[in-house]
Structures are given as structure tokens and as C-alpha cells.
Amino acid sequence: xxxxxxxxxxxxxxxxxxxDKRNSAYPSFCPTTAAEETQLENIKSSYKDDPIVSKIYxxxxxxxxxxxxKLTRVEEIILFAKKIGVKxxxxxxxxxxxxxxxxxxxxxRAKGVTDYLxxxxxxxxxxxxxxGIPEDHKIRPGKFEAACNPFLQAEVLNEAKxxxxxxxxxxxxxDALFSMHSKAPCVTLSVKDRVLQHNPIAAIYGANSYYxxxxxxxxxx
Length: 221
Prior knowledge:
The chain is an alpha/beta fold. The protein has two domains: 27-70; 86-221, Rossmann fold (3-Layer(aba) Sandwich). It is built from nine helices and four strands, in the order αααααβαβαβαβα. A four-stranded parallel sheet has the order 2-1-3-4, sandwiched between helices.
């Protein structure tokens, strides 16, 4: 199916972006015009009146408005945690990012955040075979390979009653499982991209140059 044969257009097809500036017109497929008034009113009510949602939403808007382009994401996350009154911070780290996580915890302490708990993805040390991963899907077939354990990471932090959990370098999919199992809200400091030094958006920037293979149809992805 070509792009022109898509059954439903969406925001990625839009050229107006009237929702952002209100200086043109909404396209016919815009979810703004499709949304029912009661739906929008209920959403606005949640942002304003729900105790937890409004606290998170207001703190996010305040940081965006006052520090736009001034703070790194590391600083924004720490400030966000303080703004919403986090008492205990949770950190779910990839083993491959544990050195970066150690530096992050030093930054936390420097900023006065000392009540935190970090759990790495290999906690529990479960063999991949024990959870049904075939030998030929291992990085090093024939050798012990610990499976990532996002459920245990979440459960440890749940038991510690963390108020906010930060994900650092979790694998694609494992981040989804951690978020599903976490009782506390989750924010992402960094994501896993082994090829691009954990900077996945570089593939988008290079789609018309170094990574133009991404725009070609193939059987890999």
C-alpha cells in the first residue's frame, strides 16, 4: 500500500497545524474537530481538577514555560520531581547504562535529592532459557545470558513506594513492560539505541542521507 492509499490520514500528514497556532483551518481529518465537546471538557477537567493529574500537568507546563531551552532533560526531571513533591525517587536502569546512572545519582545528591532507589535490569539474574528465549536468539549462544527483568524492577520500586520512576536506557519493549507494571508515574531520561549511542532521533535526522535505507522497503523491519 502506498502512502496515497492509506485508509486514514492523521497528524503526521497535516500541513496546517492549526491546533498549535490557530492561524489557518483544521483539516477534515483533524482529531480536534472529531473530538466530542464533552470529551474535551472531561479532559480539561482532569488537567485542572484531578489532584494527581493536575499536579503533574501544572509542573510540566511551568517547567516548559519558565525554562524552555535553558535546562537539560536531567535538570528538568530533577526540577519536575521537586515540583510535584516527590519524596522517594525510583530509577530503573539498564545494566549497559549503569555507569551513566551512577553519574546521574551523583547529580541527584548534588541537587539535594538523597532518597532514591536504583534497580538494574539484570536484577534476579534469570537465565534467558528459563523464560523461553531460544538459544539462537541470545547475543552469545551457548553461554549464560541474564534476561532483562522489567517486572522485578517495577516490583522492587513498588515495594519501596516510590513516587516517581525514572527509566534509563531500558530496551525497546522492556520499557513498555516496566511502565505497565509500575505503580508510580514514569518518565524517561534516556532510551536504548546501541547503534546511535542512545540517540535514536539521529536516524530520523539522517533518513535522507546516512540512513536513507530506512525509507526503503525490505524484509528486516
